[in-house]
Specification:
The protein is α/β, with parallel strands linked by helices. It is 39% helix and 18% strand. The chain has an 8-stranded parallel sheet.
């Protein structure tokens, strides 16, 4: 049973050292009881206390990790309902479903296309996480052949889909040493599935459309020695799926109901249900097929939802070459906020005009935000120019600052007296025209 804040406080060192980030041990204990911090933040808690605090310090949603050769997908370990409360850490794994009634060559082609898909979004490479192989042919051999075909072109983690324990065991024999997810265990097959999952050290889904039955089934499977569970509230309509996934999340986080403290899996039937699954609150998402035009927005949405809102996405400060600039090409300046950088870089690249892009360290803020916060001023720009040796790369010392901070031009002239300071456009979209007409 979870401990109260006062009970936790009695097990802490009570030194009020503040090294955990809180003014007192009592404040830390209250946060620990509310699942808003981790016990590891306290550097002086004793091993004896750690053992007693294990339940209270454990995240309300168990961390599930699927592993294969050099790949892993993590889900769970979340401690809040909404990302603004803290942040979400483990993005839902996106899997592409393959059926075993396809030919071996068809499976390889489908998997190859999905496995090689990668899109760069504000400096981050987004890809799928794995494949789900569904046994619908009725043949053990077809199931095994399909798994081997996938493994011949991809090493990403697998989900095995079939309610027949014999099928599942035949499939797991092909991927010994990996941690796969089996879908799944229901009221009819849970004992055999549990034994197989324990034997092969893999996770299993718990299938039911009733939360009471699901909780009871999860506890039974745990008694068989299988700790890694994923919940599948088997409702197909949008409303019921949203309701059950939200209830599971609330019960596990707000009520600390351990029997439902696991990630969930969703099998979206369309783009809308896939979007809902990413936002509320899937741990694993299995798409029926691979389509770039449908996958891309899902990957971007997932990245946005699982990016810490308190930590802006940044690029590395430095001097970047666009369109192979020479000594006589201009230098443009911007901040290291990813969206700002890529907006400017893309416009310069599309213009076809060679230029140097100097990215100043503004702690991940956009131009106006950084300027207002004192993180993007003449002194910082001058420091970047000198620190990255920009003067050694150009013969014509022209530097273009964003039009939104034109007020810095005079100060920058004082900092860089040898440079010709130009004021560029306010909006990135106007950069190509500016480069063609003004420089």
């Amino acid at each position: 049973m979870a401990l109260s804040g006062i009970q936790i406080y009695k097990l802490l060192p009570q030194t009020n050292c503040k090294e955990c980030g809180f003014p007192t041990c009592l404040a830390f204990a209250m946060k620990l009881a509310a699942k808003q911090v981790e016990l590891s933040a306290c550097p002086y808690v004793t091993e004896e206390s750690k053992a007693q605090l294990a339940e209270s310090s454990a995240p309300p949603i168990r961390l599930i990790t699927l592993k294969s050769d050099s790949y892993e997908v993590k889900a769970g370990n979340e401690v809040v309902l909404f990302r603004h409360e803290k942040t979400f850490y483990n993005k839902p794994g996106i899997f592409i479903k393959i059926t075993d009634n396809l030919t071996e060559n068809e499976i390889k082609l489908k998997c190859q296309e999905a496995d090689s898909y990668e899109v760069n979004y504000v400096g981050m490479n987004l890809t799928i996480d794995g494949f789900a192989i569904e046994g619908i042919s009725g043949s053990h051999e077809n199931f095994k052949t399909a798994i081997k075909a996938i493994r011949s072109v991809s090493k990403r983690p697998l989900i095995l889909i079939n309610n027949n324990p014999e099928f599942i065991e035949a499939g797991l024999e092909c991927i010994k040493g990996e941690t796969a997810l089996v879908h799944g265990a229901d009221i009819n097959n849970w004992e055999k599935i549990s034994d197989i999952c324990k034997k092969y050290s893999c996770a299993t889904t718990v299938i039911s459309n009733n939360l009471d039955v699901m909780a009871e089934l999860a506890e039974k499977i745990k008694t068989k020695g299988v700790e890694d569970l994923v919940l599948y509230p088997s409702q197909t309509d949008l409303s019921s799926s949203l309701f059950l996934n939200t209830q599971i999340r609330r019960l596990s986080i707000k009520k600390n109901f351990r029997a439902l403290g696991y990630p969930t899996i969703v099998f979206p039937t369309n783009q809308v249900t896939a979007v809902q699954a990413i936002t509320k609150y899937a741990g694993f998402i299995v798409l029926d097929s691979f389509a770039k035009e449908l996958l891309y927005p899902l990957l971007v949405l997932r990245q946005n939802i699982y990016t810490d809102p308190q930590k802006p996405i940044q690029v590395t400060p430095g001097i970047y070459e666009i369109n192979n600039p020479k000594f006589d090409n201009p230098v443009l300046v911007t901040t290291n906020f990813s969206i700002t950088y890529f907006s400017v870089a893309n416009e310069v690249e599309s213009s076809g005009i060679p230029a140097w892009l100097l990215v100043a360290d503004a702690e991940g803020m956009s131009v106006l935000t950084a300027w207002a916060a004192g993180k993007f001023d003449a002194e910082r720009i001058a420091k970047a120019v000198k620190g990255f040796g920009v003067g050694d790369k150009v013969s014509k010392k022209r530097i273009v600052i964003p039009g939104a901070v034109a007020v810095l031009s005079g100060e920058l002239e004082n900092e860089l007296p040898e440079w010709d300071i130009r004021v560029g456009p306010r909006e990135a979209v106007d950069i190509p025209k500016y480069l063609k007409l003004a420089l």
